[in-house]
Amino acid sequence: LAKKMDITHIDSGSMYRATAFYMLEQGVDINNEKEVLARLDEVNLSFEKVSGKQVIFLNGENVEYKIRNNEVSTAASIVSLYGKLREKLVAIQRNMGENESVIMDGRDIGTVVFKDADLKIFLVCDVRERARRRFKEFKAKDENITLDMVVKELKERDKRDESRANSPLKKADDAIEVDSSNMSVREVVDSIDKIAGERWK
Predict the structure, then answer these.
(1) Contacts of 131 (CB under 8 A, 6+ apart)
(2) 9: buried, middle or exposed (CB in 10 Å: 19+, 13-18, 0-12)?
(3) Which candidate, 50, 75, 78, 87, places its Cα nearest to that of 65?
(4) Which of 3.40.50.300, 3.30.420.40, 3.40.50.150, 3.30.40.10 is the CATH number of 2-200?
(5) What is the per-residue pLDDT across 130-166, written as a single tens digit (0 to 9) for each?
């Protein structure tokens, strides 16, 4: 969608993944909020365009492919519960959108990060279908995981994110819901592009 609209894309979730990845690499107990926050200043995140795609850098290193696994996904969901950590990443995200138009995806973008965004899309999908798609990604990396395990972990993540005190996952009142359960990537892109075109015509 970002490529089609010629707008910078920011995957806010990758920021939580990269932070969690750093903590795991450093042997930090991600379930210990105090320990995680004590090391937070060691985390420096930035985005750079590589082969036409915005990718995340952690302390100067491209970690885009190191953070796309089940262990990091679970860890990211846990550290995202910590208020001070969210405050730091939200500030970075807001700064990114101050000087240019961006397409930013994440679980609190429309409700917290950019409450006054020009267009908010709340993308939903049947959990089994989401798991199937994620499972396909994991199997491509030869991860030892089953589809049922992915379903279970997605449900647990959704529950954590929906019930967290800081920036819970919920649909913004002015967001437009798009159900991608039975849609291809191209169909999702075309659907949102059409919505955007109607909004700004």
Answers:
(1) 147, 150, 151, 154
(2) middle
(3) 50
(4) 3.40.50.300
(5) 999 989 888 777 678 889 999 999 999 899 889 888 8
